[in-house]
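A reminder from the course coordinator: this example appears on the midterm review sheet, so study it carefully.

Given structure:
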């Protein structure tokens, strides 16, 4: 039995933040009903495709049910209200005010379902001067200050390699708060509105930078221990343009690293001249190719130093294989692919075949006509 079996979620969200949140809940056992406008959500039309099906849509919406409906029509609205009466959670990703105009805001919902949980994921939250401003992940990162803390060699902000605001600021906090609300509603019987702001939720990621402001230090990027200021924590290029990632913060790890690379004794105390130590490490690491460094590091357990893998290399790693992280497959059209895993503990994570994503409106007869 999965932990969320018996929980029903009506999901109005699209694209990434909401669908990933409800995917996690679905794989934990919840029944997720995806509400789509006539013609389906935009992600269904996002390339690349396999047999006409979007890969991106499929991996984010696997194991869910799809209802295609015109919410603004009289019958569509009535059917949605009846569906919500049977649900535990409603998730939306509209700008503030949209659900109210649809007659589906929290104040309206608790009148028909007093213990409903309504989770609304937005860029800036339900209040504040920017609540109606259109933006995407990169904008939230820029305005939160997080984007400025990682810089390129020329001092410009580094382009993020994934949607940090969408996932870490939207999807994960939504899951956390929905689970908390389920527990609270279980105890009180009263419904709960959850205001999930992706911009708000980026601030915990700046825990060190924010802490240092108490000492009147405001980071401008690359000037903190974990963002490039320390030679103990950084990325170093090898002879053949590979890279190693060093995280030897603790003294025992640092001393072992210095011993392995034969760093000059006078540079081991990196507090004296951090830049001189860093320059020496750069020169040493660049003297050997990646394969050689991999051999040198292979049997080291207390050094906190790793080869930077490509995605293809990471997928073939023995650690990943033994953990069976990518053992489950899902069908898209006639093909089987390895979908991205959700962050569930291994005992709840699917191990073999994962349910496919729903065809548009495949559950209309189950949820709409019956209601």
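Designed residues:
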């Amino acid at each position: 039995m999965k932990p969320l079996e018996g929980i029903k979620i009506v999901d109005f969200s699209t694209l990434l933040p909401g669908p990933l949140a409800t995917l996690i809940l679905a794989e934990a056992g919840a029944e997720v009903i995806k509400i789509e406008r006539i013609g389906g959500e935009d992600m269904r039309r996002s390339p690349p495709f396999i047999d006409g099906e979007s890969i991106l849509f499929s991996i984010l919406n696997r194991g869910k049910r799809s209802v295609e409906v015109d919410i603004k029509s009289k019958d569509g609205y009535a059917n949605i209200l009846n569906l919500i009466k049977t649900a535990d959670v409603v998730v939306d990703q509209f700008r503030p005010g949209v659900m109210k105009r649809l007659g589906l805001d929290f104040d309206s919902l608790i009148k028909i379902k007093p213990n409903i949980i309504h989770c609304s994921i937005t860029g800036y939250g339900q209040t504040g001067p920017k609540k109606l401003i259109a933006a995407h992940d990169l904008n939230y990162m820029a305005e939160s200050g997080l984007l400025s803390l990682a810089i390129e060699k020329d001092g410009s902000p580094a382009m993020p390699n994934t949607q940090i605001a969408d996932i870490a600021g939207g999807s994960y906090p939504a899951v956390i708060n929905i689970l908390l609300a389920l527990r609270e509603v279980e105890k009180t019987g009263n419904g709960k509105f959850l205001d999930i702001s992706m911009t708000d939720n980026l601030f915990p990621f700046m825990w060190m930078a924010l802490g240092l402001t108490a000492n009147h230090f405001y980071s401008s990027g690359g000037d903190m221990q974990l963002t490039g200021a320390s030679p103990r924590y950084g990325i170093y290029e090898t002879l053949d343009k590979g890279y190693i990632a060093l995280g030897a913060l603790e003294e025992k790890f640092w001393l072992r690293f210095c011993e392995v690379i034969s760093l000059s004794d006078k540079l081991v105390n990196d507090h004296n001249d951090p830049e001189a130590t860093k320059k020496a490490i750069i020169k040493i690491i660049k003297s050997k190719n990646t394969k050689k460094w991999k051999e040198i590091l292979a049997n080291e357990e207390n050094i906190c130093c790793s080869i930077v893998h490509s995605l293809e290399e990471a997928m073939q790693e023995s650690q990943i294989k033994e953990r069976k992280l990518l053992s489950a497959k899902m069908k898209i059209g006639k093909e089987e692919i390895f979908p991205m895993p959700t962050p569930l503990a291994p005992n709840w994570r699917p191990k073999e075949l994962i349910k496919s994503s729903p065809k548009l409106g495949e559950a209309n007869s189950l949820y709409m006509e019956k209601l």
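The chain has a mean pLDDT of 96. The longest strand covers residues 31-36.
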